[in-house]
Amino acid sequence: MNEAPPSLPPRRPIRDLPDELISQIAAGEVVERPASVVRELVDNALDSGATQITVRLLAGGVRLIAVEDDGCGIPQEELPIALRRHATSKITSLSDLETVATMGFRGEALAAIGSVSEMALLSRPAHQPGAFLLDARSGELRPAARGTGTTVEVKELFFSTPARRKFLKTDATELAHCIESVRRHALARPDVGFAIWHEGKLVEQWRATFTPGDANVQDALARRLADVLGEDFVAQSVAVQHRVGPVTVTGRAGLPDAARSRADHQYCYVNGRFVRDKVLTHAARSAYEDVLHGHKQPAYALYVEIDPARVDVNVHPTKIEVRFRDSREVHQAVRHAVENALAAPRAAALSAAPAEPAAAAVGVQASQPNLGSKQPQVQAWQAQAAIKFEERGHHVADLQ
Ligand SMILES: Nc1ncnc2c1ncn2[C@@H]1O[C@H](COP(=O)(O)OP(=O)(O)OP(=O)(O)O)[C@@H](O)[C@H]1O
Ligand SMILES: [Mg+2]
């Protein structure tokens, strides 16, 4: 048969995309809504060693997101580099990536945000006599006033991509997402103070509950959990502390009676990073199998510490997903950690004498999120945590 071939569309030549468009495409993955910008900027502030982070928002973050920190700052000559795609101070090689201790490492957040907003960086490192302001769009760099640290200002998000802007919800909804984004960070970093302002009003403030020199790390986390999730969460939960092989699980697990109708108080962290992970949520859920019926959702904040070589954080640009080398070992550790914690109050009620901790468990009622950063402030907090464990015959390495 001699059928005529269907007519093909005219072929277009292969070309490199312009830089701006590459960033806008990348921004589609990283920046979904104002809360994604807040997440990236707070990540950066934490990586800079900040002890106080202030987030200011207008119109749910759509008109303005400004994140201010007292961290290490960016030298004047590096400000333009910070905006470039794939420019980072956090890794230099593939092996660094395998042991990455910072929240960021891809070197693309600022470039992505800058391509879909009007962005400005204002920064001053401690040794620099003054601050400098860089306007991302015009490239203008000029002296400005500021103490040590950095402020990143993001205005008119998605102004150049109206299709994206149409997906945004009401200001109140976007604000709620922004607050949730800061809450996730705050639960992992009781050593850092956070404040959120909206339309000139202070809407949340969580003061640092741990300062270097404090003895009680567990109390610091419990106080932060109470500040952020409410006193009830702490009153109606038990401390989790369990170690199996290379996996340590700490935090607090809500008692079955405190289960909620929504899964809104379920926080999981891997090496200090908030993650959404089916392995972890399934493991936690299965620990409640026998004590929770129907559709009730347990409340918990769980901090998994694992050798960074056993977990891949470079799965998705938002880094909210991780891939475990051995997900079964993590599943078992989390399940047992929560089961043991939930069993402890019942065992105590049955017997006046405290039950012996399980052989694999560390056996302390401590809660110790890893604060995954190389900054000096964090080292002080980690050192305190280590002291706690060493008092009981365990070592820093147990936690890392
Ligand atoms: N608040 C800040 N304080 C100090 N330095 C900062 C701050 N924000 C950004 N930087 C610097 O700018 C660089 C680029 O930031 P950006 O967020 O784009 O990339 P990253 O954090 O390295 O990686 P990722 O894309 O994974 O977030 C950082 O590596 C850091 O050196
Ligand atoms: Mg970053």
In brief:
The protein has helices at residues 19-30, 34-47, 79-82, 94-98, 109-115, 162-166, 171-188, 217-229, 231-235, 278-287, 327-350, 376-391, 396-399, and strands at residues 52-58, 64-69, 118-124, 131-135, 141-144, 149-155, 193-198, 201-206, 237-244, 247-254, 266-270, 273-274, 300-306, 311-312, 323-324. It is α+β, with helices and mostly antiparallel strands and 400 residues long.
Task: List the bound ligands.
Answer: adenosine-5'-triphosphate, magnesium ion
Tell me how many strands there are: 15
Largest sheet: 8 strands, mixed
Overall pLDDT level: 87
Distance between the termini: 70 Å
Percent of residues in helices comes to: 25-40%
Instruction: Give the overall form.
Output: globular
Query: Order of strands side by side in the largest beta sheet?
Result: 5-4-3-6-2-1-7-8
What portion of residues belong to β-strands? Answer: 15-25%
Radius of gyration, rounded? 23 Å
**What is the CATH superfamily of the largest domain?**
Histidine kinase-like ATPase, C-terminal domain
The level 1 CATH classification of the largest domain is Alpha Beta
Q: If helices are DSSP runs of H or I spanning 4 or more residues, what is the number of helices?
A: 13
Uncertain spans: 354-400
Encode the helix/strand succession as letters: HHEEHHHEEEEHHEEHHEEEEHEEEHHH
CATH architecture annotation of the largest domain: 2-Layer Sandwich
GO molecular function: ATP binding; ATP hydrolysis activity; ATP-dependent DNA damage sensor activity; mismatched DNA binding
GO cellular component, one term: mismatch repair complex
Organism: Acidovorax delafieldii 2AN
Keywords: DNA damage, DNA repair
